[in-house]
């Protein structure tokens, strides 16, 4: 909470990082708790806690939504005697939405502060469509390859590349 009011421009305090970082961390904590219950002996608590924080940090960095306080949720979900589940996760996510809303209102009352600096919709779009962009780039590479091959073929036949373009323009007109 303190970060939302003191570090308004920090990437870790932006809504995307808060929501996705905490959701990923809590999911990792719940999954590790399930794994512990599946095994007969299970792992010691300190191993689960260490593994939870390490996995949460690695996943948040890989996805690009680092939010350091979110790692604490992994430890809480793994180390509680009660079984925290998806319902508790939903309650915490609703609390995060309320916190972000209040921070947005309070921080934007002052002209010198702006929160959030980015809602993160662009980042989500990029994460979802990264494969489509990669495929499009691969398609452009294939078209450049065809153009280069056509240039080398026209050089051997005597026709120039500009003659090919002029021919294509005339056929379009």
Descriptive keywords:
flat; 75% helix; 0% strand; mainly alpha; 173 residues
Would you write up a description of this structure?
With 173 residues, the protein is mainly alpha-helical. It has 2 domains: 2-119, no CATH class; 129-172. Helices cover 75% and strands 0% of the residues. The protein has 7 helices and no strands. The longest helix is centred in the last third of the chain and has 37 residues, at 121-157.
Q: What's the layout of helices and strands?
A:
Blueprint: H1 2-6, H2 15-38, H3 45-63, H4 70-79, H5 86-107, H6 121-157, H7 161-172
Helix pairs in contact: 2-3, 2-4, 2-5, 3-4
Largest sheet: none
Percent of residues in helices comes to: over 70%
Structural class: mainly alpha
How many helical stretches?
7
How many domains in all? 2
Outline the low-pLDDT stretches: none
In oligomeric terms, what are we looking at?
A: single chain
- List the secondary-structure elements in sequence, H or E: HHHHHHH
Report the radius of gyration as a whole number of Å: 26 Å
Characterize this entry briefly.
The chain has 173 residues and is an all-alpha fold. It has helices spanning 2-6, 15-38, 45-63, 70-79, 86-107, 121-157, 161-172. The chain folds into two domains: 2-119, no CATH class; 129-172.
């Amino acid at each position: 909470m303190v970060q939302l009011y003191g570090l308004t421009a920090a990437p870790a305090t932006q809504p995307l990082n808060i929501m996705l970082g905490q959701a990923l961390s809590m999911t990792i904590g719940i999954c590790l708790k399930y794994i512990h219950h599946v095994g007969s002996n299970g792992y010691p608590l300190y191993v689960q806690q260490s593994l939870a924080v390490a996995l949460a940090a690695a996943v948040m960095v890989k996805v690009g939504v680092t939010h350091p306080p979110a790692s604490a949720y992994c430890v809480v979900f793994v180390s509680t005697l009660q079984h925290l589940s998806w319902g508790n996760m939903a309650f915490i996510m609703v609390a995060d939405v309320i916190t972000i809303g209040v921070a947005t209102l309070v921080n934007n009352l002052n002209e010198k502060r702006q929160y959030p600096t980015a809602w993160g919709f662009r980042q989500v779009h990029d994460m979802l469509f990264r494969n489509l962009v990669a495929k499009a780039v691969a398609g452009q590479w294939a078209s450049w390859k065809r153009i280069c091959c056509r240039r080398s073929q026209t050089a051997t036949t005597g026709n120039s590349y500009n003659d090919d373009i002029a021919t294509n323009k005339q056929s379009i007109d």
